[in-house]
Amino acid sequence: MAGLLKTMGALAALSLAGCASLATAQGDQLDPTDAADTLMINRKVQCSTVDNEPIVYWWHGQAFSRRQGEKDVHLFDVEGMNVRACSSITDETRGNGYALVSREILLYLDKETGEPLATWDNPWSGETVDVLHVANDPVNFEAYEIGRDGQPSTWSGEISNGQWWLRSTFPLWYPNPLGGPYQAEIGGTYHATELFNFFGRTEDLLDPDTTTAKVTVGWSRMSDWLPWMKMNGREGMFWVHTAGAKLASWDDMSETMKNEIRTNYPEYVGPPPEGDPRDNMTSWKYFDGVRKGEIEVPER
Prior knowledge:
Blueprint: H1 9-25, H2 35-46, E1 55-66, E2 74-91, E3 95-109, E4 119-121, E5 128-130, E6 134-136, E7 141-144, E8 158-160, E9 163-174, H3 183-186, E10 190-201, H4 202-205, E11 216-223, E12 237-246, H5 255-264, H6 283-291
Antiparallel strand pairs: 1-2, 1-12, 2-3, 3-6, 3-7, 4-5, 8-9, 9-10, 10-11, 11-12
């Protein structure tokens, strides 16, 4: 990730505040076709226009298998959270922007009791395996008025009858951190797709006086088998389907997630610090770090 330009953060914050003041004075809503307003709209969906204000997303759903010639199997339930914050930045080429810092958890839950799994019985191999829950820290990104293509940013969502929705699809195809040096020749390349749907009402999204938008979210993911499942190259894939929302506060999460954080992941009560310089973590990199003894995991 590019380094954050801290020295320009205050100027960027003034610029964002100026946009809001101008829109208010004119009695206008934010304009999704304007680059500066698009930046503010996206920031209100992702986090808050107030620098370093913590925001929590929370979601839950189910996880399934998909194999040729077999009915999909409901493997277990899932529950996730992401705690984040944004800060104002600027770039001499791409203009004003914001940097989002976050950390996220995804728990694999017993589908009968709802409790986080310690082990899982693999129905294909007959082996009982240890479950490794997702604890990705950090998951950060930056956004600017000018896109990577050099063109002014415009909002990619849709608006109708006082409501808005936004679809984000991320097909992932890159060298697998658990694979060898010959992935292009014999396979093993990381292959997954993340699908997000965000929804809300335009009254707070386009109002220049509100600092954040009320958002509901749907998240689905298709991927190779999780490495801790020990599928040993078996044909098939893993997929999840969830829904959730941006919460009013950290306390609005389920007791299951709050207890998990208090017990095993205490740093997840808040986001990483502004200007976090670390490389992003993924679930596959996390697994690799655990196996190498570089990351300590909770005892269950």
